[in-house]
Amino acid sequence: xxxxxxxxxxxxxxxxxxxxxxxxxxxxxxxxxxxxxxxxxxxxxxxxxxxxxxxxxxxxxxxxxxxxxxxxxxxxxxxxxxxxxxxxxxxxxxxxxxxxxxxxxxxxxxxxxxxxxxxxxxxxxxxxxxxxxxxxxxxxxxxxxxxxxxxxxxxxxxxxxxxxxxxxxxxxxxxxxxxxxxxxxxxxxxxxxxxxxxxxxxxxxxxx
Length: 208
Ligand SMILES: C[S@@+](CC[C@H](N)C(=O)[O-])C[C@H]1O[C@@H](n2cnc3c(N)ncnc32)[C@H](O)[C@@H]1O
Known about the structure:
By secondary structure, the protein is of the alpha/beta class. Helices cover 37% and strands 21% of the residues. The chain contains 7 helices and 7 strands, in the order ααβαβαβαβαβαββ. It has a 7-stranded mixed beta sheet, sandwiched between helices. Helix 2 (38-51) packs parallel to helix 3 (65-73) and helix 6 runs parallel beside helix 7 (167-181). The protein starts with 5 loop residues before the first helix and ends with a strand. The model has no long low-confidence stretch (mean pLDDT 96). The structure holds S-adenosylmethionine.
Protein backbone atom coordinates (compact mmCIF):
# COMPACT_ATOMS: atom_id res chain seq x y z
CA UNK A 1 0.00 0.00 0.00
CA UNK A 2 1.33 3.44 -0.91
CA UNK A 3 2.39 5.33 2.20
CA UNK A 4 0.06 8.13 3.14
CA UNK A 5 1.41 11.61 2.26
CA UNK A 6 1.93 13.80 5.31
CA UNK A 7 -0.81 16.33 4.40
CA UNK A 8 -3.34 13.50 4.14
CA UNK A 9 -2.38 12.33 7.63
CA UNK A 10 -2.48 15.87 9.00
CA UNK A 11 -5.88 16.59 7.47
CA UNK A 12 -7.33 13.33 8.83
CA UNK A 13 -6.05 14.40 12.25
CA UNK A 14 -7.48 17.90 11.82
CA UNK A 15 -10.90 16.47 10.89
CA UNK A 16 -10.81 14.15 13.89
CA UNK A 17 -9.77 16.96 16.24
CA UNK A 18 -12.34 19.44 14.91
CA UNK A 19 -15.33 17.19 14.38
CA UNK A 20 -14.91 13.80 15.97
CA UNK A 21 -14.06 14.47 19.58
CA UNK A 22 -16.24 11.61 20.75
CA UNK A 23 -14.82 9.00 18.36
CA UNK A 24 -14.77 5.46 19.79
CA UNK A 25 -11.44 4.37 21.29
CA UNK A 26 -11.42 0.56 21.26
CA UNK A 27 -8.58 -1.52 22.68
CA UNK A 28 -6.62 -3.11 19.84
CA UNK A 29 -5.17 -5.95 21.87
CA UNK A 30 -2.12 -6.16 19.61
CA UNK A 31 -4.20 -6.58 16.42
CA UNK A 32 -3.06 -4.88 13.19
CA UNK A 33 -4.34 -1.32 12.65
CA UNK A 34 -6.44 -2.16 9.62
CA UNK A 35 -9.61 -0.49 10.72
CA UNK A 36 -11.29 2.39 8.89
CA UNK A 37 -10.03 5.91 9.63
CA UNK A 38 -12.01 8.06 12.10
CA UNK A 39 -13.54 10.23 9.32
CA UNK A 40 -14.59 7.08 7.47
CA UNK A 41 -16.07 5.62 10.64
CA UNK A 42 -18.04 8.81 11.15
CA UNK A 43 -19.24 8.58 7.54
CA UNK A 44 -20.52 5.05 8.21
CA UNK A 45 -22.43 6.31 11.23
CA UNK A 46 -23.90 9.20 9.25
CA UNK A 47 -24.94 6.95 6.36
CA UNK A 48 -26.62 4.54 8.75
CA UNK A 49 -28.42 7.41 10.47
CA UNK A 50 -29.46 8.95 7.14
CA UNK A 51 -30.99 5.63 6.19
CA UNK A 52 -32.69 5.24 9.54
CA UNK A 53 -31.04 1.81 9.62
CA UNK A 54 -32.48 -0.60 12.16
CA UNK A 55 -30.52 -3.65 11.02
CA UNK A 56 -26.88 -3.59 9.94
CA UNK A 57 -24.57 -6.33 8.71
CA UNK A 58 -20.79 -5.91 8.74
CA UNK A 59 -18.42 -8.35 7.04
CA UNK A 60 -14.97 -8.01 8.65
CA UNK A 61 -14.86 -6.97 12.31
CA UNK A 62 -11.18 -6.82 13.40
CA UNK A 63 -11.28 -5.09 16.82
CA UNK A 64 -14.76 -3.67 16.28
CA UNK A 65 -13.81 -0.08 15.46
CA UNK A 66 -16.14 0.40 12.46
CA UNK A 67 -18.70 -1.71 14.33
CA UNK A 68 -18.68 0.79 17.20
CA UNK A 69 -19.34 3.65 14.77
CA UNK A 70 -22.22 1.74 13.18
CA UNK A 71 -23.64 0.81 16.58
CA UNK A 72 -24.01 4.50 17.40
CA UNK A 73 -26.51 4.91 14.57
CA UNK A 74 -28.85 2.17 15.70
CA UNK A 75 -32.08 2.95 17.56
CA UNK A 76 -32.96 0.95 20.68
CA UNK A 77 -33.87 -2.57 19.62
CA UNK A 78 -31.75 -2.30 16.46
CA UNK A 79 -29.73 -5.26 15.18
CA UNK A 80 -26.03 -5.22 14.35
CA UNK A 81 -24.34 -8.41 13.18
CA UNK A 82 -20.63 -8.54 12.39
CA UNK A 83 -18.74 -11.45 10.80
CA UNK A 84 -15.12 -12.26 11.64
CA UNK A 85 -13.00 -15.24 10.59
CA UNK A 86 -10.28 -14.94 13.22
CA UNK A 87 -11.32 -16.07 16.74
CA UNK A 88 -8.70 -13.83 18.37
CA UNK A 89 -10.02 -10.76 16.51
CA UNK A 90 -13.55 -11.72 17.50
CA UNK A 91 -12.53 -12.01 21.15
CA UNK A 92 -10.99 -8.52 21.16
CA UNK A 93 -14.03 -7.14 19.32
CA UNK A 94 -16.50 -8.71 21.74
CA UNK A 95 -14.73 -7.03 24.65
CA UNK A 96 -14.81 -3.67 22.84
CA UNK A 97 -18.39 -3.98 21.72
CA UNK A 98 -19.75 -5.02 25.11
CA UNK A 99 -22.91 -6.48 23.58
CA UNK A 100 -23.50 -3.69 21.03
CA UNK A 101 -23.23 -6.22 18.18
CA UNK A 102 -23.52 -9.93 17.61
CA UNK A 103 -20.07 -11.20 16.57
CA UNK A 104 -20.24 -14.37 14.46
CA UNK A 105 -16.96 -16.24 14.10
CA UNK A 106 -16.01 -18.11 10.94
CA UNK A 107 -15.19 -17.48 7.29
CA UNK A 108 -17.93 -15.13 6.10
CA UNK A 109 -18.77 -17.23 3.06
CA UNK A 110 -19.69 -19.99 5.54
CA UNK A 111 -21.56 -17.82 8.04
CA UNK A 112 -23.47 -15.61 5.58
CA UNK A 113 -25.79 -18.48 4.55
CA UNK A 114 -26.88 -18.81 8.21
CA UNK A 115 -28.21 -15.23 8.35
CA UNK A 116 -31.73 -14.02 7.87
CA UNK A 117 -32.21 -10.64 6.23
CA UNK A 118 -33.09 -8.18 5.13
CA UNK A 119 -30.51 -5.74 6.44
CA UNK A 120 -30.87 -1.99 5.92
CA UNK A 121 -27.13 -1.46 5.54
CA UNK A 122 -24.30 -3.86 4.71
CA UNK A 123 -20.65 -2.85 5.21
CA UNK A 124 -18.14 -5.06 3.36
CA UNK A 125 -14.63 -4.87 4.84
CA UNK A 126 -13.09 -8.35 5.15
CA UNK A 127 -10.69 -10.24 2.84
CA UNK A 128 -10.65 -8.12 -0.29
CA UNK A 129 -10.41 -10.97 -2.77
CA UNK A 130 -13.95 -12.07 -1.86
CA UNK A 131 -15.64 -8.71 -2.43
CA UNK A 132 -17.68 -9.87 -5.43
CA UNK A 133 -18.96 -12.89 -3.48
CA UNK A 134 -19.76 -10.62 -0.52
CA UNK A 135 -21.67 -8.31 -2.85
CA UNK A 136 -23.72 -11.27 -4.06
CA UNK A 137 -24.56 -12.16 -0.46
CA UNK A 138 -25.28 -8.54 0.44
CA UNK A 139 -27.82 -8.45 -2.38
CA UNK A 140 -29.41 -11.68 -1.17
CA UNK A 141 -29.75 -10.22 2.32
CA UNK A 142 -31.11 -6.86 1.09
CA UNK A 143 -34.43 -5.22 0.36
CA UNK A 144 -35.18 -2.28 -1.95
CA UNK A 145 -33.63 0.68 -0.12
CA UNK A 146 -30.70 -1.22 1.41
CA UNK A 147 -27.35 0.53 1.23
CA UNK A 148 -24.22 -1.53 0.53
CA UNK A 149 -20.82 0.02 1.31
CA UNK A 150 -17.52 -1.68 0.45
CA UNK A 151 -14.12 -0.40 1.56
CA UNK A 152 -10.70 -0.65 -0.13
CA UNK A 153 -11.86 -1.05 -3.71
CA UNK A 154 -9.33 1.29 -5.40
CA UNK A 155 -6.06 0.01 -3.88
CA UNK A 156 -3.63 2.80 -4.83
CA UNK A 157 -5.25 3.00 -8.27
CA UNK A 158 -4.26 -0.58 -9.05
CA UNK A 159 -7.97 -1.11 -9.75
CA UNK A 160 -7.46 0.15 -13.33
CA UNK A 161 -4.16 -1.65 -14.04
CA UNK A 162 -5.48 -4.59 -16.03
CA UNK A 163 -2.05 -6.18 -16.05
CA UNK A 164 -2.17 -6.42 -12.24
CA UNK A 165 -3.37 -9.94 -11.57
CA UNK A 166 -3.01 -9.88 -7.79
CA UNK A 167 -6.21 -11.68 -6.69
CA UNK A 168 -7.07 -8.89 -4.23
CA UNK A 169 -6.89 -6.35 -7.08
CA UNK A 170 -8.57 -8.44 -9.79
CA UNK A 171 -11.37 -8.98 -7.28
CA UNK A 172 -12.08 -5.23 -7.19
CA UNK A 173 -12.54 -5.26 -10.97
CA UNK A 174 -14.93 -8.23 -10.67
CA UNK A 175 -16.74 -6.34 -7.90
CA UNK A 176 -17.20 -3.28 -10.15
CA UNK A 177 -18.27 -5.44 -13.11
CA UNK A 178 -20.90 -7.03 -10.91
CA UNK A 179 -22.13 -3.62 -9.75
CA UNK A 180 -22.28 -2.47 -13.37
CA UNK A 181 -24.26 -5.47 -14.56
CA UNK A 182 -26.65 -5.71 -11.61
CA UNK A 183 -29.92 -4.03 -12.58
CA UNK A 184 -31.05 -3.82 -8.94
CA UNK A 185 -28.40 -1.33 -7.81
CA UNK A 186 -27.30 2.23 -8.43
CA UNK A 187 -23.72 2.69 -7.34
CA UNK A 188 -20.68 4.89 -7.34
CA UNK A 189 -17.12 4.63 -6.09
CA UNK A 190 -15.36 7.49 -4.30
CA UNK A 191 -11.57 7.67 -4.27
CA UNK A 192 -10.13 8.54 -0.89
CA UNK A 193 -6.84 9.72 0.56
CA UNK A 194 -6.04 9.95 4.25
CA UNK A 195 -3.99 8.51 7.05
CA UNK A 196 -4.52 5.06 5.49
CA UNK A 197 -3.12 6.07 2.08
CA UNK A 198 -4.89 6.15 -1.30
CA UNK A 199 -7.92 3.91 -1.71
CA UNK A 200 -11.66 4.22 -2.18
CA UNK A 201 -15.05 2.90 -1.24
CA UNK A 202 -18.16 1.97 -3.18
CA UNK A 203 -21.69 2.86 -2.20
CA UNK A 204 -24.57 1.00 -3.79
CA UNK A 205 -28.28 1.53 -3.29
CA UNK A 206 -30.52 -1.45 -3.87
CA UNK A 207 -33.38 -0.06 -5.93
CA UNK A 208 -35.46 -3.11 -6.72
C1 LIG B 1 -9.91 -4.61 7.25
S1 LIG B 1 -10.17 -5.63 8.65
C2 LIG B 1 -11.74 -5.05 9.25
C3 LIG B 1 -11.66 -3.69 9.84
C4 LIG B 1 -12.94 -3.26 10.53
N1 LIG B 1 -14.08 -3.32 9.62
C5 LIG B 1 -12.77 -1.83 11.00
O1 LIG B 1 -12.80 -0.90 10.17
O2 LIG B 1 -12.59 -1.63 12.22
C6 LIG B 1 -10.60 -7.16 7.93
C7 LIG B 1 -11.05 -8.22 8.91
O3 LIG B 1 -11.67 -9.25 8.14
C8 LIG B 1 -11.29 -10.47 8.69
N2 LIG B 1 -11.42 -11.51 7.67
C9 LIG B 1 -10.50 -11.90 6.74
N3 LIG B 1 -10.99 -12.88 5.99
C10 LIG B 1 -12.24 -13.11 6.43
C11 LIG B 1 -13.26 -14.02 6.05
N4 LIG B 1 -13.08 -14.89 5.05
N5 LIG B 1 -14.42 -13.99 6.71
C12 LIG B 1 -14.62 -13.11 7.73
N6 LIG B 1 -13.69 -12.24 8.13
C13 LIG B 1 -12.52 -12.23 7.50
C14 LIG B 1 -9.86 -10.27 9.16
O4 LIG B 1 -9.51 -11.24 10.14
C15 LIG B 1 -9.91 -8.85 9.68
O5 LIG B 1 -10.20 -8.85 11.05
